[in-house]
Design goal:
By secondary structure, the chain is an all-alpha fold. The chain has 3 helices and no strands. The protein starts with 9 loop residues before the first helix and ends with a helix. It comes from Salinispora arenicola.
Length: 86
Amino acid sequence: MIHRARRLFSSQVRAATFARRRWRGLDPDQVYAYLDRVADELERLTREATTAHAEGELIRQALRQWPSRHADCQHAAATSNSWWHR
């Protein structure tokens, strides 16, 4: 049975079954070996997407905090530059 879900998970790919035909059709061993490769790739891509999402969130948090953390730096830079021009 092939699952019809909105999002495809590697466990669904691994659990897929196909009717066996005696005289025609695909070699079941080849089909299941290919499904294992697809499931492995799906797991890898899911891990990469999760990592990218987490990294993106860290970047968004850092960008939100940047102005308050560096407000004194701009003031100090303006003050020190005026000192050199005396």
